[in-house]
Design a protein that fits this description.
- With 386 residues, the chain is of the alpha/beta class.
- It has helices at residues 17-20, 49-61, 81-94, 113-118, 133-139, 152-173, 192-202, 228-238, 263-269, 325-334, 348-356, 368-375, and strands spanning 5-8, 22-25, 33-35, 68-71, 99-104, 123-127, 140-143, 177-183, 206-211, 244-248, 279-282, 289-290, 299-305, 310-317, 338-343, 361-363, 366-367.
- It folds into two domains: 5-252, Alpha-Beta Barrel (TIM Barrel), CATH 3.20.20.70; 271-375, Nucleotidyltransferase, domain 5 (2-Layer Sandwich), CATH 3.30.420.130.
- α4 (113-118) links the parallel β5 (99-104) and β6 (123-127).
- The longest helix is centred in the middle third of the chain and has 22 residues, at 152-173.
Length: 386
Amino acid sequence: MKPVDHQSAENYCAGNLKTSGRVHLPVAPKALARGRFSPEKALPRALTPDQALNWLEYLAEQGQSVKVINLNGPGDPLATPELTLLTLSLLRDRYPGVSLCLTTLGIGAGAYAAELARLGLAHVSILLDAVDPEVAQRIYAWIRPSTKTMPLDEAAKVLIKEQANSIAAMIEAGVNVQAKTTVYPCINTEHIPAIAAKAAELGVSEMKLFPYLAKGEDCPQPRDKATPEELSALAAQANQHLPTTLIDLAMCQEMIEVEFSHEVVNQALLPKPTPKRPHLAVCSSDGFEVDTHLGQAYQFLIYGPSDGPVVLLESRPAPEPGSGDGRWQQVALTLSDCFAVLASAAGEAPKRILAEKGLPVLTQEGNVEGLVDVLYGGGKKKGGKK
């Protein structure tokens, strides 16, 4: 057994991209649980698969070297497995030499073990903070392992069982599994050796031990704080069962958190025309304003370059409503030469289906000319409103 390795968290922080080459992509819009010591607020914005690729292209344009891509947050990547698997597949195709990994609570992960193995993930990190349902109940405010809400005591039992089953399934499929364990003083402190023992029994390759770090002054906190000496002792106990790294979060206080609502970042995330998809589809009732819901559009105005400038090229009839998901499959075919479709609003199902077909849906009201200009990299939005 190797000795306990004390490392700073610098290599685990997105803000240290220049030195570590590690990028965290928040692509998960839905959570499977909320900790008692997490802020009670809506999840931050998640990136769509297309936006994730655009962000990486932007980083490359800035001269950044990306070596590791971790799908992590703001929710749980496997709460929306279709989106996550699509993102991983796109990343693997675009960046075949980059190390891919994801961080998840582990609920339902077993069902996707074979696919994760096929995509060649370097590892999957399971957020393993308890292996006893009673301890889990003291850590989580709620756990939602399915579409139905269940009492916390029942959900905690499901969580523990699901994590064990998922770890076993992924390891059997050939996926390297790591444990990320947060130390909550006076809550799971005495439980750390049991977590490490169970993780080792299941075949987890290593444990990364993190001290709890409050996110905001108004965030609920455990009663006490663990001292460096206590953390070192816990890491040593865990190391009796499997290789353990104690992450010193104090060294990462100044990490840069990417704010994806920032105007410059928003510009970088916008879809861009490509040789195969040079055109843009717009939903408009009058040709002057983007004012039509995607589901109510009877036609698409098609914009694109013509001998230099971007102009209105044609209008195409939209498929008739009433055919369910098949309608959006038809839209994807109708707009197969478009890099995006612009509408005043759109439902989640068509946005998901079209994104899977490589056609992101942008929802923004405003002047058509101004918005088209922005998407072709020409200028600022004119008269737009969200």
